[in-house]
Amino acid sequence: MAHNIRKRNMNHADAEIDLVPMIDCIFLLLLFFMLCGRITVDQRTEQITVPPTKTAAKFKDPNGWTREIVNLFGATQHGAADQPPRNSIRIGTHTFNASGVNDYSGYKGLRQILDAVYDKAEKYDDPKKTGMRLPKVIIEIRADGDTEYRVVQEVQQVLTDTLDLENMQPKKGLDPKTARAFVNIDFTTRRPEDKM
Amino acid sequence: MAESPDDKLAEGKLDLVPLIDCIMLLLLFFILTTKFTSEEKTITSLLPTDKGQAAAPSKPVEPPQMINICIYPAGLYKGGQPSEYFKQLNDMRAGIAVIPKAWIKVGNADPIEMDGGILQKAKSGNQLLQQVEQVHVYLNDALAKFEKGGDRKTQDPVVIHCFSGLSWKYALVCYDAVRAYEAKVSGRKSTGNPSDFDEAREVDFAPPRIRDYSAKELGEELFEIIHMK
Lengths: 196, 229
Known about the structure:
The structure holds 2 protein chains of 2 kinds.
Chain A: H1 2-14, H2 20-36, E1 38-39, E2 66-72, E3 89-91, E4 94-96, H3 105-120, E5 123-125, E6 133-135, E7 137-143, H4 149-159, E8 163-164, E9 169-170, E10 184-189
Parallel strand pairs in A: 2-7, 7-10
Antiparallel strand pairs in A: 2-3, 3-4, 5-6, 8-9
Helix pairs in contact in A: 3-4
Chain B: H1 5-10, H2 17-33, E1 34-35, E2 41-46, E3 67-73, H3 82-93, E4 101-106, E5 112-115, H4 116-120, H5 126-145, E6 158-162, H6 168-186, E7 203-205, H7 215-226
Parallel strand pairs in B: 3-6, 6-7
Antiparallel strand pairs in B: 3-4, 4-5
Helix pairs in contact in B: 3-7, 5-6
């Protein structure tokens, strides 16, 4: 028995832990996270559940085009005090409220940001020959499925610069040469068969 | 006395500890920063630039016939008055944030029902697939009846009229069904490129016809959508 104990102690003293299997496992884990995970981009906030569509495709911006994401919040986060209320608009780090039926101040804020985007963007002539100069920017409307239809529609009208934001009436005598319209729109969606 | 790294190297052994440290840090970073959400996709649309501000034509042009897809809260039947529709709407919305079901119809056809709860489910399931498929089949059959032949640009425009207080998902699912029909008939798949729309049929979301969303206006809006041909 004493002989056995001595033998065991000797083995401990000489032992070197074989690290190779552990490194193998860690490398596999690392590879898994690198390939399967997606680093969250701040612009795509988590509280939004986009509607399902069958013709949805992976987006790929044409060369020379840029993309801006407009998040519209729905009722997915309803009831949580720290979440934006239904119908809020978020572009970049700016959040605007669109839930007031007769309060359109949020749209003015949105338009100001869009104007800055328009100024920076490369432009092309409207193929429909309206005389407008259109920016090479795709606006992605990332609306929660439960956002009110009116909000999505009003955002689209703000994008096309056809509303007078003082009274929310269609602009009268809009000059195509000064209009700052964004017409290339992507609606964010998911495939019905996708696991979220 | 502990062996120095040089001693180990001399013995043909590599010191793996710094390597493991680095890998562990990388692993921790990826574990903490990655999300396993499915990759989002998009469906493209082109907003009109030639509506409202174009110069008046020199001679009157016959307006094109439009195919109207109407979406309104389920349970509202034709034949009512705006005030009755508004009352029914208020009853429907009592105590809930979102109207749970919608009816969809094309022109005068009988409506079909969509369950918003199923469409909003984050996880896929047979019910969701069936729900989306049902709308696709319904709109495919309805649009086929209006098919004129010729190129897609000359087809009657499709306009989606959705009640302003309903959820956006209903309108987008209908838009998707129209796009799927167009892809089937034209044999062209969407590339997501703005030039996709150069030869495509016009499909628009109708803007809300009201701005003040008062009781009177909401009732009128429902009346118009329900009775639209």
